[in-house]
Specification:
Layout: E1 2-7, H1 10-20, E2 27-32, E3 42-43, H2 51-60, E4 65-68, H3 71-75, H4 78-84, E5 89-90, H5 94-101, H6 103-112, E6 120-123, H7 126-133, E7 140-144, E8 153-156, H8 159-171, E9 182-186, E10 191-200, E11 204-206, E12 211-212, E13 215-217, E14 221-224, E15 229-232, H9 239-259, E16 265-275, E17 278-285, H10 292-296, H11 304-312, E18 327-334, H12 351-355, E19 360-364, E20 367-370, E21 373-376, E22 380-388, H13 391-402
Parallel strand pairs: 1-2, 1-4, 2-3, 4-5
Antiparallel strand pairs: 6-9, 7-8, 7-9, 10-11, 10-16, 12-15, 13-14, 15-18, 16-17, 18-22, 19-22, 20-21
The structure holds adenosine monophosphate (AMP) and glycine.
The site of adenosine monophosphate (AMP) has 15 residues, from strand 7, strand 8, strand 9 and strand 17.
C-alpha cells in the first residue's frame, strides 16, 4: 500500500518512521515533509493545507491511505474531500474537526454530555462580555473561539486584563474570524497533561498519558510555543485515574456523538488539568500532538497502519495496543529566538552520531537538505527522544545526545520531564499568559 503523510514537523517524521514498520506499507510520500523525511521517503512539494492538490496527487498516485498531521487541513475539510473521491484518510470530518477548530462547539458538546470542564459562558459581542466581568471572580480565562495558533487563550488575573483580552479578540480582531465568538471560563488549578486515543466512533483505544512543555524557557517561563518537549507515561495517573478519563471523558463524548449519528474517527486528543476535583478537559484536539506524538508513538509496539485502517473501517474493537513499558522523553531543539524571530539556514552538526546512539530516536522538523548538509529551516528544528527504564534515565539519555548536536543559536529547555518528579496533584499556579 502507498501512504501519504500530510505535514512537515517532527510529529510527521515520527509517523513516517512508525508507518514504515508496517508490512502493509510499501511506499510513503510526505507533503511537504522536511530534511529528515527526504532521507526516508519521498517529499512532495505540496503544502499541508493545499487540499485540492493533495486530492489530485493521491488520486494520480493511487494512494491507499492518507494520514494527516496538523489541524488546519482537518479544519478545512480534507477528510470530506478525500472521501468524496473514494480515498481512505485518517481523521475526523470537517464537522467533528470543530472539536478543535471551535472552542464553543467543543464546550457545548462537553456540557451536553456531562464531561468535566471549567464552567463557561459564550459571547458574540464585546460589550456583553465586559458586562459579564462585573459579576464574576478572578482569575478567569478568555478564549477566542477559533484556531489562533495557540495564542488565542489568555489567563486574566483581574477585570482590566480580561477587558484587554476581550478587546484583543473581538475589537482588534487579532485572530481574525477566530474571534467572532469568545468564551470566558473559570481558571482551573492543577497539573496539565494529555491523553491521546484512537476512536472509530464506537471504541476507544488510548495511548500512554503524556505531558507537554509549552513555555519556551525552563520552569515554565517565557512565551507559549508549539511545545518544547514531552514525556510519557506521566506518573500523575494510576490505572484507576486513567480509566476514569477514558470512561468519564472519551466514551461519553463518542457515544453522545454516535447517538447523533456522528462517528468520530481518528485521534482524539484531550488536553486535561488534574484538579482537586479530578481531571477536567481544557481542550480537545483532533490529531496527534507535537511533541506528544514523539513520545507516545515510539512506545507503540504494534502495527500503526493496521490500527489506523481498523479505525477508518470501524473495526477498532479488533485492534490491540501493545506498549513498550519504558519511559520516553523528548527534548525539542529550536532556533535561537523561537517562538519569535529566528534565523534559518544554519548547518546542523552531530546528527549522524546522534542518530546512531542506543535508545535514541531523532526526528527532524524545521530542516532542509542542501548540498548534502542538513540546515535549519524553521522554529522547532529537531526532536531528540530517549528511552529509559525510568523517566530520569530516559531524560539523561536524551540530554546526553542533545550535547552531541549543535547549530548556531540552538535553544532548548534543560528541565523536560522534571515535572514528573513533582508529587501527584501538586499545585501549579495558573499559568500567566504572555
Ligand atoms: P487551550 O488551547 O484551551 O488548551 O488553552 C491553552 C492553555 O491555556 C492550556 O494549555 C492551559 O495552560 C491554559 N488554560 C486553558 N484553559 C484553562 C483553564 N480553564 N484554566 C487554567 N488554564 C487554562
Ligand atoms: N503540543 C500541543 C499540541 O500539539 O497541540
Amino acid at each position: 500500500m502507498k501512504v501519504l503523510v500530510v505535514g512537515s514537523g517532527a510529529r510527521e517524521h515520527c509517523l513516517v518512521d512508525k508507518l514504515f514498520q508496517s508490512p502493509k506499507v510499501d511506499k510513503i510520500y510526505i507533503a511537504p515533509g522536511n530534511g529528515g523525511t527526504s532521507q526516508l521517503c519521498e517529499n512532495i512539494d505540496i503544502e499541508a493545507d493545499d487540499i485540492e492538490s493533495l486530492v489530485k496527487f493521491a488520486v494520480a498516485k493511487d494512494v491507499g491511505l492518507t494520514v494527516v498531521g496538523p489541524e488546519i487541513p482537518l479544519a478545512k475539510g480534507i477528510v470530506d474531500k478525500f472521501k468524496d473521491k473514494g480515498l481512505k484518510i485518517f481523521g475526523p470530518n470537517q464537522e467533528l474537526a470543530q472539536l478543535e477548530s471551535s472552542k464553543v462547539f467543543a464546550k457545548e458538546l462537553m456540557e451536553k454530555y456531562n464531561i468535566p470542564t471549567a464552567s463557561f459562558q459564550v459571547f458574540n459581542q464585546p460589550n456583553s462580555a465586559k458586562e459579564y466581568l462585573k459579576k464574576i471572580n478572578f482569575p478567569v480565562v478568555v478564549k477566542a473561539d477559533g484556531l489562533a495558533a495557540g495564542k488565542g487563550v489568555m489567563v486574566c488575573e483581574n477585570k482590566e486584563e480580561a477587558k484587554t483580552a476581550i478587546d484583543t479578540i473581538m475589537v482588534e480582531k487579532k485572530f481574525g474570524q477566530a474571534g467572532n465568538n469568545l468564551i470566558i471560563e473559570d481558571c482551573l488549578k492543577g497539573q496539565e497533561f494529555s491523553v491521546l486515543a484512537f476512536s472509530d466512533g464506537e471504541t476507544i483505544l488510548p495511548l500512554a498519558a503524556s505531558q507537554d512543555h509549552k513555555r519556551a524557557f525552563d520552569n515554565d517561563r517565557g512565551p507559549n510555543t508549539g511545545g518544547m518537549g514531552a514525556y510519557a507515561p506521566t506518573p500523575l495517573l494510576d490505572k484507576q485515574g486513567f480509566d476514569q478519563i477514558i470512561d468519564g471523558i472519551f466514551y461519553p463524548l463518542i457515544k453522545g456523538l454516535k447517538k447523533e449519528n456522528k462517528l468520530y474517527k481518528g485521534i482524539l486528543y484531550a488536553g486535561l488539568m488534574l484538579t482537586d476535583n479530578g481531571p477536567s478537559v481544557l481542550e480537545f484536539n483532533v490529531r496527534f500532538g507535537d511533541p506528544e506524538a514523539q513520545v507516545v508513538l515510539p512506545k507503540l509496539k504494534g502495527d500503526l497502519a493496521d490500527i489506523i485502517l481498523k479505525t477508518i473501517g470501524g473495526k477498532l474493537s479488533e485492534a490491540k495496543i501493545e506498549e513498550d513499558l519504558r519511559a520516553c522523553v523528548c527534548v525539542v531543539l529550536a532556533s535561537g529566538g523561537y517562538p519569535n524571530k529566528y534565523q534559518k539556514g544554519k548547518e546542523i552538526k552531530g546528527l549522524e552520531i546522534a542518530q546512531k546512539q542506543r535508545d535514541i530516536l531523532v526526528y527532524q522538523a524545521g530542516t532542509k537538505k542542501e548540498a548534502g548538509k542538513i540546515l535549519t529551516n524553521g522554529g522547532r528544528v529537531l526532536s531528540v527522544v530517549g528511552f529509559g527504564s525510568t523517566i530520569k534515565e530516559a531524560k539523561d539519555k536524551a540530554y546526553k545526545v542533545v550535547g552531541k548536536i549543535s547549530f548556531e543559536g540552538m535553544q532548548y529547555r534543560k528541565d523536560i520531564s522534571d515535572k514528573a518528579l513533582l508529587s501527584p496533584k501538586s499545585k501549579v499556579q495558573c499559568p500567566k499568559s504572555n
